[in-house]
Recover the amino acids of this structure.
């Protein structure tokens, strides 16, 4: 069966372009990868041929150049926002993502909490991360 989305071509082209950009900027390039990196079942439904872990597989091709910084909003921590697909809060997902990245050989250097405005729940989460030995920042 022929699919409309060529997953292998996507992986090849994306990683080549990112490597070019890395070289262009003195071997340092900051990328924001939104959405789900290894469980993107929505994209695989709407793009026949897209694999749920395509973004992660592309990033894996750059593993020796990659440093992961996980970002979470203090607003989401305060609201106890839940990932409905997994049934867990965003703060728990940070820990899950960190473990998943590390299992796949990525360096996860830190967790950054954005939109911080003195939220007690964000302070508590940061303290929890620090007790786990995870570098954090606001």
């Amino acid at each position: 069966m022929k699919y409309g989305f060529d997953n292998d071509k996507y992986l090849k082209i994306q990683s080549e372009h990112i490597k070019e950009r890395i070289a262009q900027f003195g071997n340092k390039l900051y990328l924001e990868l939104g959405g789900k990196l290894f469980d993107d079942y929505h994209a695989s439904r709407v793009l026949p041929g897209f694999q749920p872990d395509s973004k992660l597989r592309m990033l894996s091709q750059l593993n020796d150049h990659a440093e992961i910084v996980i970002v979470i909003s203090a607003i989401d921590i305060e609201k106890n926002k839940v990932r409905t697909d997994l049934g867990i809060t965003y703060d728990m997902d940070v820990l899950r993502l960190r473990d998943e990245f590390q299992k796949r050989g990525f360096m996860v250097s830190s967790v950054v909490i954005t939109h911080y405005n003195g939220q007690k729940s964000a302070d508590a989460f940061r303290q929890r991360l620090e007790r786990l030995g995870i570098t954090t920042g606001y």
